[in-house]
Write a sequence for this structure.
């Protein structure tokens, strides 16, 4: 369904990003896997294995895709830099071809709060909302995603392309995201950018959607998280990255041509 297409998947060194890169590659898509190695501080509520995943590169993801006969390259990139999108698209075009699928998966996630507390409901360390927490979150999830969409659109229109897919990941909701307030706010901004892209770019053959995954076990899920999900009937179950990636891959296919300007909530 995605054969002869080229994708950029941000945050593709682990979790949903890595699973999405693999899912697209299995469908014949060439994939640029972008990543940024993060050194997270010790946190009693976050497994060390998850922190290790966030600190790794995307070499294993690319190697696995190539072993299966797919095409992929990796590039480390900090999306908080305003020049990063052009560098990523230049690299993809030089090594893989014109980009017609963009998956905005990378996040600057952190847990911050307006309340005077140091741990969230899951036992993870909380920090107060500050200029630093706002900047880290918004430069990646809002500005970074918006600039990636802008770069995608400009190049697509300049080459007079007629087919394109933009897919982002979101979380939080209309009532915010308590204990992850900057994360929720930045994701809300990304939703707004993506919906605007869907309407502005439809005449160029581009669809743009957001995927709202359920709790997804990318390595951070602990017994406390499982108990929390079990106590919230609307959460239903814990997903795997591969389950979420299949939905993203579908949105990137020809079959999803009529799906645009939507936030798809998965449960």
């Amino acid at each position: 369904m995605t054969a002869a297409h080229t994708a950029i998947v941000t945050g593709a060194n682990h979790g949903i990003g890595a699973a999405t890169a693999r899912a697209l590659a299995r469908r014949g898509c060439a994939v640029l896997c972008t990543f940024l190695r993060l050194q997270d501080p010790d946190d009693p509520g976050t497994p060390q294995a998850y922190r290790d995943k966030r600190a790794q590169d995307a070499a294993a993801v690319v190697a696995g895709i190539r072993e299966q006969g797919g095409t992929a390259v990796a590039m480390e990139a900090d999306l908080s830099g305003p020049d990063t999108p052009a560098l990523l698209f230049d690299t993809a075009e030089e090594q893989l071809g014109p980009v017609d699928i963009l998956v905005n998966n990378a996040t600057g996630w952190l847990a911050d709060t307006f309340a005077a507390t140091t741990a969230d409901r899951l036992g993870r360390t909380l920090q107060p909302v500050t200029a630093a927490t706002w900047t880290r979150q918004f430069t990646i999830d809002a500005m970074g995603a918006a600039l990636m969409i802008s770069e995608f659109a400009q190049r697509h229109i300049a080459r007079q392309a007629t087919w394109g897919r933009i897919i982002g990941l979101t979380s939080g909701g209309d009532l915010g995201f308590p204990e992850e307030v900057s994360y929720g706010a930045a994701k809300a901004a990304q939703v707004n950018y993506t919906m605007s892209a869907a309407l502005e770019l439809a005449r160029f053959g581009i669809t743009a959607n957001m995927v709202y995954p359920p709790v997804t076990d990318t390595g951070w899920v602990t017994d406390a998280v499982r108990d929390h999900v079990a106590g919230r009937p609307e959460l239903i179950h814990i997903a795997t990255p591969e389950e979420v990636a299949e939905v993203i891959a579908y949105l990137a296919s020809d079959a999803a041509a009529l799906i645009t300007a939507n936030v798809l909530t998965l449960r």
Observations:
- The first strand starts at residue 6 and ends at 9.
- The chain has a mean pLDDT of 95.
- The helical segments are 15-26, 48-54, 59-67, 84-95, 131-158, 181-201, 223-230, 241-251.
- DSSP finds eight helices and nine strands in the chain.
